[in-house]
From TrEMBL, chain A:
It holds the Pfam family Cytochrom_B_N_2. It is a multi-pass membrane protein. This is Cytochrome bc1 complex cytochrome b subunit. Residues 535-560 are annotated as: Disordered. It catalyses: a quinol + 2 Fe(III)-[cytochrome c](out) = a quinone + 2 Fe(II)-[cytochrome c](out) + 2 H(+)(out). GO terms for biological process: respiratory electron transport chain. Coiled coil: none annotated. GO terms for molecular function: metal ion binding; oxidoreductase activity; quinol-cytochrome-c reductase activity.
UniProtKB/TrEMBL annotation, chain B:
Residues 1-44 are annotated as: Disordered. Keywords: 2Fe-2S, Cell membrane, Disulfide bond, Electron transport, Iron, Iron-sulfur, Membrane, Metal-binding, Oxidoreductase, Respiratory chain, Transmembrane, Transmembrane helix, Transport. It comes from the Bacteria. It comes from Arthrobacter echini. Residues 1-20 have a biased composition (Polar residues). It is a multi-pass membrane protein. This is Cytochrome bc1 complex Rieske iron-sulfur subunit. Its cofactor is [2Fe-2S] cluster.
Length: 560, 340, 279
């Protein structure tokens, strides 16, 4: 009772206080301030990519809103009469003409278009890099699995947002991109032709597609993205941010800066920095010069026809797939009682299989890894990538697979810029898309293990000082300096799970699943480097030759 | 709080054979705080303050630069002006934003407290909450009676399953059914081959060896669905030495004196296959690099396409102009299920 | 039909064209471009009426030219193209390729070829203008072929750049790229970038179809259409990109590379600064 009495009797003294009190007593602001005002966020540069994604999305909403005021998504024919002379008098769609008007006749329109497009490229890149950070540090583990799924969904949504926007200017480049989508869609068995006709409102290109993509681009996709961002951030607040292991940091605390004032200032300031960088890029670098491409027409095409970077890997996969191998034809004609149907696997396989592999692994990974480790604990401390060698290697293999397909999308530019044959580039990339991930897996796992051994070395024997000393009996040694307790803790505070062999149940039987699990567990953890223990460190000081020599040497030097 | 059976944070009990080593280093706690220059030296503090203010001032200059670019550089249809205006608007915005952003961050880094603070994590789901929630849910279920009245439950399920179907069906009119549309083009016996985009007819004599013509059917420019028709009907016309052509039986008269016409729409996913190499007689698709050999009826010799480009049979009319002998004998463009 | 002053304008304008492409930010560029654009839109009508007279064989060769050219040919070209230019296993016959072919191949430095390869590369030009003219005269004397175009038909100011743009996109962009930045062909061959290529060489390439480029004879693309294409190419070359640096006009690939390397690089630099402790 006393508290409610106090609230009623509180009389603000200043004008600001009166306004604040008026709002607070109606929205419960005090409780919000109490909850968030001093909430702690850990600081690390790799934790900023999610913010970059969020901020670029805000910039996309701002610049996009400007563009919608001038853009007209109509595919009606018109004759261009605007300021750009090399297209004067050319027949084109209203959508393309209005995009040209934004570029040439509306002050700041070109700048806004460039900000919007550059932001879109950076948005998807930031989402991707943020996800890579989460993956390689193991931040997707319990309790954050669902937030990982929301993140994966956001990635797909950002691709959808990008693609629907890319096509809107109705220029030659994006039109040929749409034509490729149409071709891929038609290759889908049974329903493909119908899907194409429903999407385009009849035959390609029709007069409906731009308007439909526009609604998806400015309404549906951003709305769902906003919803997902809301959920994503809610879960971040609920879980509190994860942190790297280190002195003072445990699985039960969060160490960092309070929201007010430091974190809010840094995060808030960072929005302006991201905006500033994008504005500078848009000021000085052309993006998507639609005036070069001309209006969409089904007959012309430009050399170097590629999609924006985030769709590149699918385009690359389409390029890499051979239509025929020897006399084996990937397009099957299947005889049915009602006639023959075509199944063009040369299109279906590259369009669907890599995407299915990557996205399935991505969505399922938290549960795959939990099954392998049989780990049901919560993890708020991150892994350094080297301390999870197999996960890191699988991630690098996935990235390599992706990047080779991505590179394949620019095979023609690789050929012209490195003076090699286009065909050879394709042949090499066909080999690499299979071999590359395997090699990348092996190499990156070895590198992780080597880095772990290096950490052990430093923990046990100290840091190399670069000082060479000659001992009384003539031997030269390098002086090693033991690391301090904080560094030692950082180097040794990680988990190194061991391979788990299948254990027989009560009847002495090992189930098939257990056997599989045993094999997978061995694959994951067979090669492991254990963290240095205090016992080992003591032992190394006791009988390790180099260190003894080094220690003696230091004594000798200091006694001099 | 550290109840291992619920996997709460802080559990360091080994699970299976994984888990932490029995002996590990003690957490030494946060390293001692090291004061910054601005914490120790009042002059450094003052300097940082001035730097922050200067950065905010730069932002003001940036905003002014934007207005100069917007109001004092009138666009006059030259690219030069537009580029200058774009540069000024962009740099103005960049300075305006970076001035604020860098200023605030510099302020936070140098002048705001930099002591790291520790906050405890709490259980995401305390057990007492779970028990309360379980009880509430059970009460709700009981009061609703949904368990006791299966008739209601089952009819509701059925209704809820059916109710969304109209929402799917209502999209039926997004587009017409394909019908025969993909199997027919504007080409027909006697339709003249004309230049793209002008629509002027082509004489056989105009087509010299080594040349390539981009061709549309006569009347396309006046057609009702021009782009849809063009998307199927575009053709590439080339002339080779007749001896270099290897027509299969029955197609010997599809060419006219070494002049051949092939669909320009790739059989892979539909890009225009327009890159003709006049010495090798290869056609290359710039999108996915499918390569077709014109000497051998445009069969695929490289890349992801699996089918040759369809050939348009051509002949010459009384006036010496090239005309089609018929429509394409197979559907043009990418494969689709009903292609047959 | 041509106004008497037009060739004077041609000569007067050709110089600023080159200078402008180097210093696009010159204040006079805007004026020059506007003038040229006005001439382009107006000039098309004048050009259209002279359509059939413009098949200009303006360069006339003397018997002496042919003679000198024959000697140059025997010394520099005959080892591959054969005595009498009738061809050999190494190189094609040059009978009937015309003066334009010689002017293009030798004038752009492609011939004499340095080494065997997928296609002849552009190199520093090996002969002076007089020698090239003499060799052209010799080859032209072997059989009828495309002639070196006249200056009038090459004047970009007389062409319609938007009509040229349409023709360029249909006939040329698939190999040379919509912004004429070049592109790949099969097995190491490529279509070169057209930036910096002279009006004359663009025209000659169209009429002769060098190497794997198809021939675009006057029956296919009329001389006036070719002039429009040249006008288009020169317009986009001079004006540059309105949005700033064009990143090679290579489309989304260079844009993607830029945002990943430069964009993300700067962002990361800022994140590291932002999260580091102040000294």
């Amino acid at each position: 009772m006393s508290s409610s009495t106090a609230t009623q009797t509180y009389v603000p003294k200043t004008r600001v206080g009166k306004v604040t009190d008026y709002v607070d007593s109606r929205v419960g602001g005090s409780a919000i301030v109490k909850e968030f005002g001093r909430k702690i966020f850990p600081d690390h540069w790799t934790f900023m990519f999610g913010e970059v994604a969020l901020y670029t999305f805000v910039i996309l909403l701002l610049s996009g809103t400007f563009l919608t005021f001038f853009y007209d998504p109509s595919m009606a024919e018109t004759t261009y009469e605007g300021s750009y002379l090399p297209l004067r008098g050319v027949e084109m769609s209203v959508a393309y003409a209005s995009s040209l008007d934004i570029s040439f006749d509306i002050r700041g329109g070109l700048f806004m278009r460039q900000v919007h497009h550059w932001s879109a490229l950076l948005f998807v890149a930031a989402v991707a890099v943020h996800m890579l950070r989460v993956f390689f540090t193991g931040a997707f583990r319990k309790p954050r699995e669902f937030n990982w799924i929301i993140g994966c969904t956001l990635l797909i949504l950002s691709l959808a947002a990008g693609f629907t926007g890319y096509s809107l200017p109705d220029d030659l480049l994006s039109g040929n991109g749409l034509r490729i989508i149409d071709g891929v869609m038609k290759s889908i068995p049974v329903v493909g032709t119908y899907l194409s006709f429903f999407l385009f409102g009849g035959e390609f290109p029709g007069t409906a597609i731009i308007g439909r993509l526009y609604v998806l681009h400015i309404l549906l996709v951003p709305a769902v993205i906003l919803l997902m961002i809301g959920l994503h951030l809610f879960l971040v607040v609920l879980h509190k941010h994860s942190q790297f292991p280190g002195p003072g940091r445990t699985n039960t605390n969060v160490v960092g800066y309070p929201v007010g004032p430091v974190y809010a200032a840094k995060a808030g300031g960072f929005f302006f920095i991201v905006f500033g960088i994008l504005a500078a890029i848009a000021a000085a670098f052309t993006i998507n010069p639609i005036w070069n491409y001309g209006p969409y027409d089904p007959s012309p095409v430009s050399a170097g026809t590629q999609p924006d970077w985030y769709i590149g890997w699918v385009d690359g996969a389409l390029r890499l797939m051979p239509g025929t191998i020897g006399n084996f034809d990937f397009e099957f004609m299947i005889p049915f009682p009602w006639g023959t149907n075509a199944l063009p696997l040369n299109v279906l396989i590259p369009a669907l299989v890599p995407a299915i592999i990557l996205f399935t692994l991505m969505f399922a990974w938290p549960w795959i890894e939990a099954w392998v480790t049989k780990d049901t604990r919560e993890h708020h401390l991150l892994d350094r990538p080297r301390n999870a060698p197999t996960r890191t290697a699988i991630g690098v293999a996935g990235v390599t697979f992706y990047c080779i397909m991505w590179a394949a999308a620019s095979s023609d530019l690789i050929a012209t810029h490195f003076m090699v044959s286009l065909n050879d580039v394709t042949y090499w990339l066909r080999v690499l898309v299979i071999l590359g991930p395997i090699l990348a897996f092996m190499v990156s796992r070895r590198i992780s293990l080597a880095l772990q051994r290096k950490d052990r070395e430093i923990a046990l024997h100290g840091r190399e000082t670069g000082r060479i000393v000659r001992l009384p009996h003539g031997e030269f040694i390098e002086v090693h300096e033991p690391v301090d307790d904080y560094k030692l803790y950082t180097l040794t505070s990680f988990e190194s799970p061991q391979a788990e062999l299948p254990t027989p149940d009560k009847d002495g039987k090992v189930s098939r699943l257990d056997k599989v699990h045993g094999r997978v567990s061995r694959f994951f953890f067979e090669d492991r480097v254990a963290p240095v223990t205090p016992r080992e460190l003591a032992a190394s000081h006791g009988d390790h030759h180099e260190e003894v020599a080094g220690a003696k040497d230091r004594e000798a030097i200091s006694s001099r | 709080m550290a109840d291992s059976s619920h996997g709460t944070p802080g559990t360091t009990v080994a699970v299976g054979s994984t888990g932490r080593q029995l002996d590990e280093f003690d957490n030494p706690g946060l390293p001692p705080h090291r004061p910054r220059l601005a914490d120790r030296d009042p002059r450094a503090e003052k300097r940082a303050e001035r730097q922050v203010a200067l950065l905010f001032a730069i932002s003001v200059v940036g905003t002014l630069l934007f207005f100069v670019g917007y109001f004092f550089i009138p666009l006059d249809q030259t690219i030069e002006r537009l580029r200058l205006q774009n540069l000024m608007l962009g740099l103005g915005t960049a300075f305006a934003m970076l001035g604020i952003g860098v200023g605030i961050v510099h302020w936070a880094k140098t002048l705001m407290p930099d002591h790291e603070v520790t906050e405890d994590r709490h259980d995401i789901r305390p057990e007492s909450d779970r028990q309360d929630a379980e009880k509430i849910v059970n009460d709700i279920l009981d009061e609703s009676g949904i368990k006791r009245r299966p008739l209601i439950r089952n009819t509701l399920l059925g209704a809820a399953l059916l109710a969304p179907l109209p929402a799917i069906a209502i999209f039926r009119d997004l587009g017409p059914l394909p019908g025969n549309a993909l199997k027919e083009t504007m080409w027909d016996a006697g339709v003249r081959l004309t230049r793209d985009p002008s629509g002027t007819p082509i004489r056989a004599a105009d087509v010299t060896i080594g040349s390539a013509f981009h061709v549309i059917p006569e009347g396309l420019n006046e057609a009702e669905h021009k782009l849809e028709e063009k998307a199927k009907a575009v053709v590439l016309l080339m002339r080779l030495d007749p001896n270099e052509l290897n027509p299969s039986p029955g197609k010997e008269d599809w060419a006219y004196d070494g002049i051949v016409a092939y669909s320009k729409i790739c059989t892979h996913v539909g890009c225009p296959v327009a890159l003709y190499e006049q010495q090798t007689h290869h056609l290359l698709c710039p999108c996915h690099q499918s390569t077709f050999d014109v000497e051998h009826e445009a069969k695929v010799i490289f890349g992801p396409a699996a089918r040759p480009l369809p050939q348009l049979p051509i002949e010459v009319d009384d006036e010496g102009y090239l005309v089609a002998s018929s429509d394409f004998q197979e559907p043009v463009g990418p494969s689709f299920w009903e292609r047959g | 039909m041509k106004k008497s002053g037009s060739s004077g304008i041609t000569k007067g304008r050709k110089q600023p064209v080159k200078a402008l492409s180097q210093r696009r930010r010159h204040p006079l560029a805007a004026v020059a471009l506007l003038l040229m654009a006005l001439l382009a839109t107006g000039g098309i009508y004048a050009a259209a009426s002279t359509a059939n007279e413009a098949q200009a064989q303006t360069t006339t060769f003397t018997a002496n030219d042919v003679d000198e050219g024959s000697k140059l040919f025997a010394a520099n070209c005959a080892s591959c193209h054969g005595m009498g230019a009738t061809g050999s296993d190494a190189a094609p016959s040059l009978v009937g390729v015309g003066a334009a072919s010689v002017d293009f191949q030798v004038g752009s430095g492609r011939m004499p070829m340095q080494m065997d390869g997928p296609q002849a590369q552009v190199k520093p030009v090996q002969f002076d203008d007089e020698q090239i003219r003499q060799m052209a005269a010799y080859v032209a004397s072997l059989g009828a072929g495309p002639a070196i175009p006249s200056d009038e038909i090459l004047d970009p100011a007389e062409g319609d750049s938007s009509a040229g743009g349409e023709l360029f996109r249909v006939n040329c962009a698939m190999c040379h790229n919509a912004a004429a930045a070049g592109g790949a062909l099969t097995r190491g061959k490529y279509a070169p970038s057209l930036e910096g290529t002279s009006e004359k060489h663009i025209y000659e390439a169209m009429v002769t179809g060098p190497q794997n480029m198809p021939v675009f004879s006057d029956a296919n693309i009329t001389p006036e259409d070719k002039q429009d294409i040249i006008a288009f190419l020169k317009t986009i070359e001079e004006q540059g990109s309105p949005g700033g640096a064009d990143l090679g006009s290579l489309g989304p690939v260079s844009e993607g590379l830029f945002i990943w390397v430069a964009g993300l690089g700067v962002i990361i630099a800022f994140t590291v600064w932002l999260t580091s402790r102040s000294s």
